[in-house]
Fold each of these.
Amino acid sequence: MLLITGATGNVGGYVCDLLCLQNQPFLKASSRKRDDPQTRWLDFLKPESFHHALKGITTVFLVRPPALANPGRDMLPFLTACRDQGIQKIVFLSLQGADTIAVTPHAKIEKRIVELGIPFVFLRPSFFMQNLTMQQRADIRGHDEILVPAGRGQTNFIDARDIAESAVKCLTDSALRNRAFTLTGNISYTYDTVAELLTQALGRPIHYRKPGLLPYIIRTRKKGHPLGYAVITGLIFTMARLGKASGNSQDMVHLLGRSPRTLEEFIKEHAPLWNPNM
Ligand SMILES: NC(=O)c1ccc[n+]([C@@H]2O[C@H](COP(=O)([O-])OP(=O)(O)OC[C@H]3O[C@@H](n4cnc5c(N)ncnc54)[C@H](OP(=O)(O)O)[C@@H]3O)[C@@H](O)[C@H]2O)c1
């Protein structure tokens, strides 16, 4: 049986949709207790939830919640429980570059999964296109601006739906184990170009502001996010500023046998979401 963590999130939600379409049996994990036979209570910060959540589970789709910034404290106890309960595979939603940038929470989680000897697939995606319709939506819709500290660095974007389809392949194909896949779109863009693509699709000027790391962290805190989230996301955008988020990989083409969705298609499809009158 599959257990999908992050089931209400960007990628986990699409993973659940695709598993439903394929009639694959699975359970959703929820950090809140629910009276629902398809859902198991699992809070990474509450070890008392682990045993029941993992009962009868063979394979886990693992998402690190962005707010949990200290993997040693927040995530590793759950990984130990997975080993102790005989989980046969973890498909972990990691991060592009986690194999080389050891300070990221994702690199620490990958390392621990390997140390525990749990068979794995690491999915290392570039930036989600959905950031533009989620985290950055209010700035684009209400203020016609993008405010991320990525400078003039190039960023690669992938659609969370493509990550989810890759994840479902890795969850359901038993031959895929002890592998890592870097999942990217085919083109990388500066945020100036992203602003230009939005300008063309929306018919009004969208500006890319280039805040420094500290102003970004202060602003993200003011929006109500925890400090750990503000710092980690700020550092991830800084990786983009330093040119470390632009690599393109063909791993998704090899996994799914098709090209990734493009940012241009994504922006056209989602244009109504940035309309201030809707
Ligand atoms: N955004 C990007 O561009 C990008 C790029 C590469 C990698 N990533 C990585 O992808 C991962 C997911 O990021 P996201 O922004 O898409 O987040 P998300 O999956 O949309 O949301 C976080 C999920 O975590 C669950 N959650 C929160 N607190 C929890 C807890 N204490 N215990 C168990 N589950 C909990 C939430 O479920 P409930 O509703 O049940 O609380 C929610 O489904 C992160 O590790 C991020 O670093 C993101």
Amino acid sequence: MIVPIPEYCIACGSALQQQIPEGEDRLRGVCPDCGEIHYRNPKVVVGTLIESEDQVLLCRRAIEPAEGLWTPPAGFLEMGESMAAGAARETMEEACADVEIVRPFARIDLTRIGQVHQMFLARLNDPGIGAGTESLEVKWFPWDQVPWSELAFPVVEWVMRLRMEDLDTDQHRIHHGCLHWLEVGSPMSLESYDLSDLQSLSLIP
Ligand SMILES: [Zn+2]
């Protein structure tokens, strides 16, 4: 979901004009009546990679976008929440799973759609899992049976590939990356992005 361009003033309801406010360098929605400037800034998405015995927990999405495709539990951070608390809440909502956050794993900037994704490694506090209202089903996948062609979003595929690489090579890393869309090809395909802006930092295990 791309951060939408606001059409009406949140303060007074008037139709906005797109103009560059004095002293700024880009178009903003400016209210001609009350002067309110409507800034658009990226949204934060938080989620968890829950691992147990060489398996990872995925949810099959019950809602658009990407209905029917697989993703780790993740969703928009709410006001007043820490990123870790938001990730645990989304995990409870989508996978009915009570988790403990282990550590940050990957932060990916999605500049095309104005999102920042922070994924954490997590473990279950309680073995119970189940499909929340936004999931058709939740399921454990051994890492060698991940449904790569049925993952919901390019960011999901990238994060999971980074995690599998770390597991295969016995590395403990934290990743910071950016999905730069190449402006050709489907924005839903990881191949349509330049992934070279990646920093992978090793942690002492
Ligand atoms: Zn206004």
